[in-house]
Structures are given as C-alpha cells and as structure tokens.
Design a protein that fits this description.
This protein is an alpha+beta fold and 105 residues long. It has one domain (14-91). The protein contains 2 helices and 5 strands; from the N terminus they run βββαββα. The chain starts with 16 loop residues before the first strand and ends in a 14-residue tail after the last helix.
C-alpha cells in the first residue's frame, strides 16, 4: 500500500477504531499489549485509564450488561484472571448475585 493511502490518509479511515469479534478495538503503535496488527480492545484501555496502569495479560474485563461494545467505565468489572471470570459465569445463575456495579470506579 502506498504511504499516501495508509492510516489517516486513507479515505476509509475511521480514526483507528473498528470492531473485532464483537469488541471495539483501537489502533495503537505503542501499547505493550497490542496485538500483531497493533490493535487493543477499547474496554481494556478504559480500565487501564481508570486504574492508572496497564492491565496484565491475565487480567480480564467483564461487561456487566454483557453488551461487548458498551465500554463505559461503570459497565466494566475487573477479574484477576480467566478462571475467576469463568467461575462467575458458571455460578451466577445458581449461587451468587450477578455483578451490578463496577469495581473500577
């Protein structure tokens, strides 16, 4: 691709924001946890901004209302790992109250 049609110079440029597997992803060239295509999930960026640090690769962000594009801080909940998140989903209908409030605010 010619340099004059990359990124912001491309007529189809949408500010580096797109959707991948139901999640909003943001183009970044300097985030340590970006993927090979230089994107990171927007909900992780929102959580990181609130926490004032990068999330570890193990930490997982849950969308409280289960709408994957709703990245408002009050809709995000931080789990320390995938196991905790999986356990929550496996037991929420039986034993524990559903999460209704963010732990990031």
């Amino acid at each position: 691709m010619k340099d004059n049609t990359k990124g912001e110079k491309n007529a189809s440029w949408k500010g580096g924001k797109t959707e991948d597997k139901g999640y909003i992803v943001i183009k970044t060239h300097d985030h340590p946890n970006r993927n090979k295509a230089n994107y990171i999930q927007e909900h992780r960026l929102v959580a990181e901004k609130s926490l004032g640090r990068y999330l570890t690769k193990q930490e997982l962000i849950h969308h409280i209302n289960e709408i994957l594009t709703d990245n408002r801080l009050e809709n995000l909940y931080l789990f320390k790992n995938k196991g905790e998140h999986t356990k929550y989903h496996m037991t929420k209908n039986n034993k524990i109250k559903p999460i209704t409030k963010s732990n990031l605010t």
